[in-house]
């Protein structure tokens, strides 16, 4: 087993828990922002953000974006042995980049709707990592 | 919602890009309070700005700068402001008397990518001199407009490509035979009814088969492109048409050109080809062309086909007379050089 990856009481790997959290968060972000700018435009922004952040966190390149949303199935299967901290940092970087794009496009209109819901979940992920 | 619907209809029924932007710009004041609406179209490197008539230049500059910046972030490759051609339309966007502060600065904006099939083809932006001028609902409306504009823009782009393919010869970039015949129909109609001059010059490259046999079709194509370019540069009037008529044959349609003028042009073209060395790989070759001229009313043609046939007969005479020459059809003698 890769160092730093533990199995929880429920038999799940800690990386699985982080993936669960971010899968939900990604779905939530998709839902909020697609209501505002539509799936097509959001898909383009996600693709751009994944291309950029995937340069450093290569596992993000396995995320699949379509007009239906964002799928973590493949990345979850391929990266379950990855250190949770690395997964967290990757998603955090993705969210930061998306937030930067939203801000460049609409100033605070999207982020005002989004950040109050997203930030507590990112903090929750941080707590999970620190309790490891 | 009705206003949004009519804006969308106006955008989707436009047949020209400029009309589409005008339609959008004219309808947007019913939905938003803004000073400037911009559409950056990547393919043409054009930024259309639809602005409040009292918009100060400094505000315009800020809008341009911001749109170019946002597009660079979206496209991930920076574009320079100098690369963008700016087209500004100033209008009264608010019903009540309104004067923008000459010192007004860009305080808020919504900018969205124009994306089709996952490709970013530009961006649109709505801008205000007031802080927090746009909220979530305005963004929803604007994104619907952006989505429709992107789809319409792509449709118009495709239409323009189809139009181009229908008009131009893909190898030489000259207009093709079909378009040439359309022009000829229109010009003969004008000349026959108005009694004005119309000259036709048929051009054929001498011994072109030898070029193909020696250098292959790639070498032949290169020669065709170079000759086409020389032919195109030999006429300057907007009404003149130079077309690839087929194979190594070209045709000039010169409305309003008397026989003498057409003859002078033909001789100039002949000399320019004769004096131009053609480089194919490491080999330099010299080529010549033969030219035949017909003219209305000098030659009493009754149709465009007859005018072309007369020029073709003159071309045949030029070939028969030894090539590298200009011949004018002479009805008394049958054919004359």
Q: How would you summarize this macromolecular structure in one to three sentences?
A:
The complex is a heterodimer of chains A (132) and B (337). Chain A is mainly alpha-helical and 132 residues long.
| N to C succession of SSEs of chain A | HHEEHHH
Q: What portion of residues of chain A belong to β-strands?
A: under 5%
- Quickly count the domains of chain A: 1
Computed CA radius of gyration of chain B, to the nearest angstrom: 28 Å
| Count of the domains of chain B | 2
The coarse silhouette of chain B is elongated
Quaternary class: heterodimer
Structural class of chain B: alpha+beta
Helix coverage percent of residues of chain B? 40-55%
Q: Briefly note the structural class of the backbone of chain A.
A: mainly alpha
Low-confidence stretches of chain B: none
CATH architecture of the largest domain in chain B: 2-Layer Sandwich
- The dominant shape of chain A is globular
CA-CA gap between termini of chain A: 15 Å
Q: Residue-averaged pLDDT of chain A, rounded?
A: 86
**Beta strand count of chain B:** 12
What does this structure look like?
The complex is a heterodimer of chains A (132) and B (337). Chain A has 132 residues and is mainly alpha-helical. The N terminus of chain A is likely disordered. In chain A, a hairpin with a 2-residue loop joins β1 and β2. In chain A, α1 packs across α2 and α2 packs across α4. The two termini of chain A are 15 Å apart. Chain A has one domain. By secondary structure, chain B is an alpha+beta fold. Chain B has two domains: 165 residues, GAF domain (Beta-Lactamase, 2-Layer Sandwich), CATH 3.30.450.40; 152 residues, Alpha-Beta Plaits (2-Layer Sandwich), CATH 3.30.70.270. In chain B, 45% of the residues lie in helices and 23% in strands. Chain B contains eight helices and twelve strands. Chain B has a five-stranded mixed sheet, with helices on both faces. Chain B has a five-stranded mixed sheet with strand order 7-8-6-11-12, sandwiched between helices. The longest helix of chain B has 32 residues. Chains A and B meet through α1, α2, α4 and α5 of A and α3, β4 and α4 of B.
């Amino acid at each position: 087993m890769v160092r730093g990856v533990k199995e929880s009481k429920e038999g799940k790997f800690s990386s699985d828990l982080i993936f669960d959290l971010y899968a939900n968060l990604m779905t939530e972000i998709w839902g909020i922002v697609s209501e505002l700018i539509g799936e097509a435009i959001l898909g383009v922004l996600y693709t751009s953000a994944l291309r950029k952040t995937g340069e450093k966190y290569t596992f993000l390149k396995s995320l699949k974006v379509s007009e239906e949303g964002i799928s973590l199935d493949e990345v979850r299967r391929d990266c379950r042995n990855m250190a949770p901290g690395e997964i967290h940092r990757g998603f955090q970087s993705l969210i930061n980049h998306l937030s930067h794009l939203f801000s460049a496009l609409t100033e605070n209109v999207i982020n005002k709707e989004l950040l109050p819901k997203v930030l507590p979940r990112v903090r929750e992920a941080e707590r999970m990592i620190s309790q490891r | 919602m009705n206003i949004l619907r009519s804006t969308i209809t106006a955008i989707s029924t436009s047949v020209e890009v400029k009309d589409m932007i005008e339609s959008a710009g004219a309808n947007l004041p019913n939905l938003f309070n803004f000073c400037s609406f911009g559409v950056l179209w990547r393919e043409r490197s054009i930024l259309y700005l639809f602005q409040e008539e009292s918009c100060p230049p400094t505000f315009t500059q800020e809008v341009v700068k911001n749109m170019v910046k946002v597009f660079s972030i979206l496209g991930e490759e920076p574009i320079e402001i100098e690369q963008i051609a700016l087209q500004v339309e100033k209008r009264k966007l608010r019903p009540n008397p309104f004067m923008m502060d000459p010192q007004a600065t860009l305080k808020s904006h919504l900018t969205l990518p124009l994306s089709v099939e996952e490709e970013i083809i530009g961006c649109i932006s709505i801008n205000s001199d007031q802080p927090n001028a746009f909220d979530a609902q305005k963004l929803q409306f604007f994104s619907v407009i952006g989505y429709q504009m992107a789809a319409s823009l792509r449709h118009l782009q495709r239409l323009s490509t189809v139009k181009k393919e229908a008009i131009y010869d893909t190898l030489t970039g000259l207009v093709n035979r079909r378009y040439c015949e359309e022009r000829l129909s229109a010009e003969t109609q004008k000349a026959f009814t108005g009694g004005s001059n119309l000259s036709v010059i048929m051009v054929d490259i001498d011994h072109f088969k030898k070029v193909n046999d020696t250098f292959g079709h790639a070498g032949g194509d290169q020669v065709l492109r170079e000759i086409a370019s020389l032919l195109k540069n030999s006429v300057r009037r907007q009404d003149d048409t130079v077309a690839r008529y087929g194979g190594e044959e070209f045709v000039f349609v010169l409305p309003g050109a008397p026989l003498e003028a057409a003859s002078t042009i033909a001789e100039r073209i002949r000399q320019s080809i004769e004096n131009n060395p053609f480089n194919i790989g490491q080999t330099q070759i010299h080529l010549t062309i033969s030219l035949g001229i017909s003219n209305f009313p000098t030659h009493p043609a009754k149709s465009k086909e007859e005018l072309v046939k007369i020029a073709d007969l003159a071309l045949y005479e030029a070939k028969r007379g030894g090539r590298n020459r200009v011949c004018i059809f002479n009805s008394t003698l049958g054919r004359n050089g």
